[in-house]
Amino acid sequence: MELCTRMTKQLLLKEVEKGNYKNLVLSPLSIDVVLNMVAAGSKGRTLEKILGWLGSKDMEEIKSQSLQMMAVAGGDQYL
Q1: From the CB of residue 79, how many other CB atoms can be counted at a distance below 10 Å?
Q2: Which stretch is the leader sequence (predicted)?
């Protein structure tokens, strides 16, 4: 999630530097979810790189974290 927070901050700063002060919403959580989905569909070196970016050791860790987030968002039905 730290990577996603940094990415969001960088994207927002770039827009401000361009003078783009329109309504702009970026969600670190959404970026994290998308990267988790990309990781789930990856294998080999690509998967290794994504796991490194996310700071995860394997897909089981990502699955566990995703289930925890779903439980927080949707109640215990996902546990």
Answers
A1: 8
A2: none
Three-state helix/strand/coil letters over the chain: CHHHHHHHHHHHHHHHHCCCCCCCCCCHHHHHHHHHHHHHCCCHHHHHHHHHHHCCCCHHHHHHHHHHHHHHHHCHHHC
Tell me the Ramachandran region of residue 23: left when phi exceeds 0, alpha when psi lies from -120 to 50, beta otherwise: beta
Distance of alpha carbon 56 from alpha carbon 46, whole angstroms: 14
